[in-house]
């Protein structure tokens, strides 16, 4: 059976998870830009790992992505998901994020029919 690029990407992700010591790995979702997992970190805490695949060989693109990630890691606010680390290879970017229980953001800001909920209602819910 032939190995696809997607299989190679999944193998790289699984190898990265194992190397970094993450356990209890479960996939939360997948989209056009990558895949998201919920994992247990070596410190016992839950984390979300977001992997984006692409060609990150361009030094300008890679540098811009690293700078943005490092700036975002410094942000601290109760309404922002904490970014713990950013790991980058020539073909893969991994963001380690704080895990927040309660479902995905889309479900929290849209009604059951998928229509956006007004900001006034969201403020009352908070």
TrEMBL record:
It comes from the Eukaryota. Residues 22-126 form the Protein kinase domain. GO terms for molecular function: ATP binding; protein serine/threonine kinase activity. The keyword Nucleotide-binding applies. It is an enzyme of class 2 (transferase). The keyword Mitochondrion does not apply. ATP binds at residue 50. Its EC number is 2.7.11.1. It catalyses: L-threonyl-[protein] + ATP = O-phospho-L-threonyl-[protein] + ADP + H(+); L-seryl-[protein] + ATP = O-phospho-L-seryl-[protein] + ADP + H(+). Gene3D superfamilies: Transferase(Phosphotransferase) domain 1. Pfam families: Pkinase. Keywords: ATP-binding, Kinase, Nucleotide-binding, Serine/threonine-protein kinase, Transferase. This is non-specific serine/threonine protein kinase.
């Amino acid at each position: 059976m032939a190995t696809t690029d997607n299989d190679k990407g999944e193998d790289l992700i699984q190898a990265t998870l194992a190397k970094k010591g993450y356990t209890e790995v479960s996939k939360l979702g997948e989209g056009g830009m990558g895949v998201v997992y919920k994992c247990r970190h070596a410190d016992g805490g839950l984390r979300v790992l977001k992997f984006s695949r692409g060609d990150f060989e361009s030094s300008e693109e890679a540098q811009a992505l690293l700078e943005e990630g490092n700036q975002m890691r410094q942000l601290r606010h109760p309404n922002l998901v904490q970014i713990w680390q950013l790991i980058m290879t020539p073909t893969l970017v991994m963001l380690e994020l704080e895990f927040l229980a309660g479902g995905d953001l889309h479900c929290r800001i849209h009604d059951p029919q998928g229509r956006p909920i007004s900001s006034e209602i969201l403020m009352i819910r908070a």
